[in-house]
Amino acid sequence: MIVTIDGPAGAGKSSIARELARSLGFSFLDTGAMYRAITLGAIRKQIDFSDQASLILHAQASRIRWQNDQIFLDDDDVTREIRTPVVTDSIKYVANINQIRNALSQQQREIAARQDIVTEGRDQGTEVFPDAQCKLFLTASPAERAQRRHQQLAELGRPIPLEEIRATQDRRDAEDRERPQGALRPADDAVIVNSDGLNREQVVEMMLVTVRNKLDSQAKSASNNRSNA
Ligand code: DC
User: Fold this and answer.
1) CATH T-level topology, domain 31-114
2) Contacts of 131 (CB under 8 A, 6+ apart)
3) Helix, strand, coil: what percent of the chain each, to 5?
């Protein structure tokens, strides 16, 4: 089964998707990490972000692979570096190029073809896996997302004013929603989960109920098909 989770930055998708996958015994795919790794590689190679042809060649030549929770770009462990602000601020130059999106979407489909998976991103339920059996859209109000990020950074010893976090978040939301291909939006058949006022365990629990219902109805229709055959 393929479970897709899309939603805006700061809604807690990664940690929730990871936990959901663990509870179900499914694999987990963080597609944002793929866009981040390609962006980091372009920065390291000093590719000019206005040079789309070179960015496409770079993306096609890059090899992304996972080992447990670590992500490798051409055999280099980039798990931490892909989360730095300089990468986050530059992702749009990579994520807005359709040829790069198509190449990464293809890799995502190949990974999902081999296993039961929870895959999270922006376009998983809409463009990459339009036929996924279970689609979730995880969101939270902009104020709550910014507040959570503010608290996380403060706990990491990096206090940043709330207004600054909110302004960056609003800009990223707009970029993600306005992308010509792969724009952030819920699929028509997605279940919307709003995590305002809920903790991670409560959100995972709600999602587990939805996924288990889908698994049950899949099992029932498979058994009906067998008895009608
Ligand atoms: O989930 P994240 O914040 O790590 O994603 C980083 C960026 O990557 C996000 O702002 C847009 C892009 N992205 C995308 O375009 N499509 C995806 N499926 C996942 C992420």
Assistant:
1) Rossmann fold (3.40.50)
2) none
3) 55, 15, 30
In short, whether 120's Cβ falls inside 6 Å of ligand 1 is no
For the chain, what are the domain ranges?
1-26+116-215, 31-114
Digit-coded pLDDT (tens) for 47-103: 999 999 999 999 999 999 999 889 999 999 999 999 999 999 999 999 999 999 999
Could you tell me the maximum CA-CA distance found in the chain, to the nearest angstrom?
A: 63
pTM: 0.95
Q: What is the pLDDT of residues 195-210, one digit of tens each?
A: 999 999 999 999 999 9
Question: In which order are the strands placed within the sheet that holds 27-30?
Answer: 27-30, 117-121, 2-6, 134-139, 191-194
From 142, 118, 133, 122, select the one nearest 194 (Cα to Cα): 142
Residue nearest atom 3 of ligand 1, based on CA coordinates: 9
Helix (H, G, I), strand (E, B) or coil at 17: helix
Q: What atom in ligand 1 is closest to the CA of residue 179?
A: 15
Rounded CA-CA distance 129/4 in Å is: 8
Q: Does 3.30.70.100 match the CATH number of domain 1-26+116-215?
A: no
Domain 31-114 in the same topology as domain 1-26+116-215: yes
